[in-house]
Amino acid sequence: MIDAIDIESLSETDKLHIWNAGRAELTTKPGADRLARLADTECRRWQTKNPILAAVMQACGTWSRYWNEEESFHEATLNHLSSLIGLEPVSNETFIEFRQIFPDDDMLRTLVLLALSEIVASANYSYCASLAKDSGLKKLFKQIAADESQHMSYFISFAKALVDSGEYSPKGALAVAHLFLREGGEIHGSYRQKIEQRQTHVNWWDSLKVEALQTDGPVEIERKANLIFAALKQITGIHFSSAAEVEEKWLEMVGC
Ligand SMILES: [Fe+2]
Ligand SMILES: [Fe+2]
């Protein structure tokens, strides 16, 4: 797909999108490595108590292999394109920092976090595609957006299976959604005034360099929020149409 891109014609915004996305994709490997390990641990935990749930966990761990391969294609393509354009290469320091594996968390929260991360990624790539004038670059961004959207569907399906099993409370899904939707939440990415400083891992959406982009703020916020509401409906069966409703239901479920 790179051969179809006329590198000389790319705008500064296109270049920044490619560079940012290449760095962001570096965090997908630790995400997938962690998911594979966690899914197998969960499979063993449920094997005798709930064999169907154990099978779901193993299916999720197995699928993560194909997910990781697709993300590696994104990472390699975007970073190779970045080097062809002559953009600043990823330093060893950044590479090692972005490869940190996230601390383990509850499986439902993990799956919902990944589903929401894919929502944000897909919307961002669609936005990049909409601005790209070069037909080859537009096609590449659209393809990656479609891949991320498909990943989202898988994560939603696995999360739904966990809730449907009755072994995981939907409040875990709402907790993660609230983290994204709350005022100053993750959905605003690196446009936020205050970003949590972590020593444990890198959330790609916190690490995008946005100063040079000619946008007034985070892009496609409404679309991302609506996609999160749709994901919650599929996972929990509960209809939401605002961040406040999600927060209210979540607080109700945790007993506040
Ligand atoms: Fe990706
Ligand atoms: Fe993805």
What can be said about this structure in brief?
By secondary structure, this protein is mainly α.
Structure description:
It is built from nine helices and no strands. Helix 1 runs antiparallel to helix 3 and helix 7 runs antiparallel to helix 9. The chain is mainly alpha-helical and 256 residues long. It starts with 11 loop residues before the first helix and ends with a helix. Helix content is 66%, strand content 0%. The model has no long low-confidence stretch (mean pLDDT 91). The longest helix is centred in the N-terminal third of the chain and has 35 residues. Bound molecules: fe (ii) ion (2 copies). One fe (ii) ion binds next to helix 5 and helix 6.
Bound molecules: fe (ii) ion
Count the helices. How many?
9
Nearest-integer average pLDDT: 91
Helical residue percent band: 55-70%
Radius of gyration: 18 Å
Instruction: Name the beta content range.
Output: under 5%
The count of strands amounts to 0
Order of helices and strands: HHHHHHHHH
Backbone shape = globular
For the record, give the distance between the C-alpha atoms at the N and C termini, rounded to a whole number: 52 Å
Compile the SSE list and pairings.
Layout: H1 12-25, H2 28-46, H3 51-85, H4 92-98, H5 107-131, H6 135-164, H7 171-181, H8 221-236, H9 243-254
Helix pairs in contact: 1-3, 2-3, 2-5, 3-6, 5-6, 5-7, 5-8, 6-8, 7-8, 7-9
The structure holds fe (ii) ion (2 copies).
